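Example 298, ligand NAP.
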Amino acid sequence: MILVVGATGSLGGRIVRGLLEQGQDVRVFVRHNSPSEQMAQQGLAHTVQSLIDAGAQPAWGDLKDKASIEAAVAGVDTVISTANAVKRGGEDTLATVDRQGTLNLIDAAKRAGVKRFLYASVQGASPEHPVPLFQHKAACEGALMDSGLTYTIVQPSIFMEIWIGLMVGIPLMMQQTITLIGQGDHAHNFMSEQDVADYFIAMIDNPAAFNQTVMLGGPASHTWTEIVEHVGGRMGVELPLQYAPPGSTIAYLPEEANSMATMMEMYEDHLDIAEASATYGVRPTTLDEYIDRTFVQR
Ligand SMILES: NC(=O)c1ccc[n+]([C@@H]2O[C@H](COP(=O)([O-])OP(=O)(O)OC[C@H]3O[C@@H](n4cnc5c(N)ncnc54)[C@H](OP(=O)(O)O)[C@@H]3O)[C@@H](O)[C@H]2O)c1
């Protein structure tokens, strides 16, 4: 039995569906009155009912409720956690969910005799990182490594579906000028969220992933300016584009996304993913493949 925590989320739902397609027994840790019910209408989440209809078994609970976590991990071989509070709010915070909730999950999994634990972290997770999310991820990575569980810490680069959707898809939909921060000239290694899901699934039984921290990325790095040019080029139009100074607030972006947009113009990332791609059999989606399926082939 595989338990997916974060199953209604964008990445978690893809993992659940992939596992079910393989015929695996999947339990999903889900909440009543989940924000995913609303978010699913914009394609940003998966409803609990859609996961149940696909064959998943619900374990109702909340990462802020220890007893419900303990019930959910009972009889489970593998835990996959992609849960986080970045797109939630209210009592769901980085401290209560990303940190304490995940620490409680690791602890409960250990006590329940879970064999495998796969955790979605971020590249650059560190206790010294200026961004709190990266500090919480580092704390959970440390707890998982110390837990004695056979772990895999997955550190993916930036997801195309989420970030290109936010920075380019939203203004396009709203017929507004696309705004980039700085000169939009720092290159990042964007990867497809579907590829991340495929890696998670491939890693469960692959000993190469046991007790490893694995950095994942896409086939190439691109700047935001290049991305806008690629989208326009594939669509056959010139997209209206303007630049704003670092630290600016872009009105159509959520708050968390604004600080990340400025942060992305402060560093670059370039990754060689040939080894990971070969080891886990995941062919990396290119930027143009993503653009064509999202912005062109409707
Ligand atoms: N986006 C990127 O570019 C990027 C890059 C690297 C790594 N990552 C990591 O990838 C992971 C996947 O993110 P995602 O986009 O799939 O996240 P998401 O769509 O925001 O989903 C969040 C999930 O966490 C669950 N959750 C939140 N609070 C909870 C609580 N109190 N109890 C139980 N479940 C709770 C949500 O359930 P409800 O629906 O019930 O709220 C939902 O299933 C994250 O860990 C993220 O840090 C993302």
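Summary: The beta strands are 2-5, 26-30, 57-60, 78-81, 116-120, 150-156, 178-181, 212-216, 241-244.
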